[in-house]
């Protein structure tokens, strides 16, 4: 795992166990209010990562892909996690009608697969997790784009370096 600079952290995820380890490390430094974009092709591992993240946060139930529902919610201690998959998102009006905007705020952590589909409607990301398939399984980049994303990434990298 290498730190490119203070705003980007990258590494490889040879198998699902490695993806779970990444999710556990991120769960330990998450704070309420964060918006996290999950970028990557079909099958890159965005939902798998989210499943592991929710598990690490103490959610014991089933985590369904929000492919058809667009969003699934998970009330946890301290905040609610909203997991979006906007792949099938077609109409910006749907965003307003469904009240998705109200789900973003200080009381939630929002994880968004296929954020580009909602484009300008979406609140900006604090963190972006990019997942890509490669010869060794998967690779990831974790990118901070706001102060709160940066402080999260700093805690993440400090904790990782220490373990
Ligand atoms: N290192 C890895 N990390 C995560 N998943 C992996 C890894 N290696 C293989 N996989 C497999 O890749 C698949 C990832 O599927 P997943 O549904 O998480 O992708 P996704 O990015 O959410 O796709 P979509 O855009 O269709 O929602 C799973 O079948 C998982 O078992
Ligand atoms: Mg998915």
Provide a short characterization of the protein structure.
The chain has helices spanning 16-27, 46-56, 92-98, 147-162, and strands at residues 2-5, 8-13, 35-39, 71-75, 80-85, 108-113, 127-134, 137-144.
Chain-wise SSE layout:
Layout: E1 2-5, E2 8-13, H1 16-27, E3 35-39, H2 46-56, E4 71-75, E5 80-85, H3 92-98, E6 108-113, E7 127-134, E8 137-144, H4 147-162
Parallel strand pairs: 3-6, 3-7, 5-6
Antiparallel strand pairs: 1-2, 2-8, 4-5, 7-8
Helix pairs in contact: 1-2
This protein binds adenosine-5'-triphosphate and magnesium ion.
Magnesium ion (MG) is lined by residues 46-47, 65, 85, 113.
End-to-end distance: 12 Å
**Which CATH architecture is right?**
3-Layer(aba) Sandwich
How many domains? 1
Strand content: 25-35%
**How many H/I helical runs?**
4
Structure overview:
This protein has helices at residues 16-27, 46-56, 92-98, 147-162, and strands at residues 2-5, 8-13, 35-39, 71-75, 80-85, 108-113, 127-134, 137-144. The model has no long low-confidence stretch (mean pLDDT 93). Helix 1 (16-27) packs across helix 2. An eight-stranded mixed beta sheet has the order 1-2-8-7-3-6-5-4. The longest helix has 16 residues, at 147-162. It has 163 residues and is of the alpha/beta class. It has one domain: P-loop containing nucleotide triphosphate hydrolases (Rossmann fold), CATH 3.40.50.300. The protein binds adenosine-5'-triphosphate and magnesium ion. Residues 13, 15-16, 18-19, 40, 42-48, 65, 85, 87, 113, 137-138 line the site of adenosine-5'-triphosphate (ATP).
């Amino acid at each position: 795992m290498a730190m490119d600079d203070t705003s980007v952290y990258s590494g490889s995820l040879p198998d699902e166990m490695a993806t779970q380890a990444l999710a556990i490390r991120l769960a330990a430094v998450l704070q309420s209010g964060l918006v996290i974009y999950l970028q990557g092709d079909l099958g890159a591992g965005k939902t798998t990562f989210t499943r592991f993240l929710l598990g690490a946060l103490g959610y014991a139930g089933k985590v369904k892909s929000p492919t058809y529902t667009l969003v699934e919610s998970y009330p946890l201690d301290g905040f609610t996690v909203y997991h979006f998959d906007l792949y099938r998102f077609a109409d910006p009006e749907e965003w307003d009608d469904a009240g998705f905007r109200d789900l973003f705020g200080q009381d939630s952590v929002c994880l968004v697969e296929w954020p580009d589909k909602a484009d300008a409607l979406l609140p900006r990301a604090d963190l972006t997790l990019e997942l890509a398939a490669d010869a060794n399984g998967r690779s990831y980049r974790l990118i901070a784009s706001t102060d709160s994303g940066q402080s999260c990434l700093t805690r993440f990298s400090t904790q990782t370096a220490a373990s």
